[in-house]
Amino acid sequence: MTTPPRRPTNPMAAAEAAFKPTKKPAIPIREPSAAPNVRELVSIRIDRAVLDHFQEDGPGWQDRINDALRRMVGGKPQD
Questions:
Q1: I need a surface site. Which of 14, 57, 64, 67 has the fewest CB within 10 A?
Q2: Across the chain, which distance is largest between two alpha carbons, in Å?
Q3: Is the overall model pTM greater than 0.85, yes or no?
Q4: Per its UniProt entry, which superkingdom is the organism in (predicted)?
């Protein structure tokens, strides 16, 4: 019984196979949550002055930001 060669018979084909571009997996489509009024954890960047404005009244500043954003988009149709 003969042993297979340690090196590929065609080094160029082996090199091309090693560096062959792979397909990226498709990004899964995110479906909206089924439950209404469920909050979602997100990360955003806002100016320090805006953050200070909402935090100056103490705890609940995230709710105040959410309420302000909700009032701003209140007149627009939901997608």
A1: 57
A2: 83
A3: no
A4: Bacteria
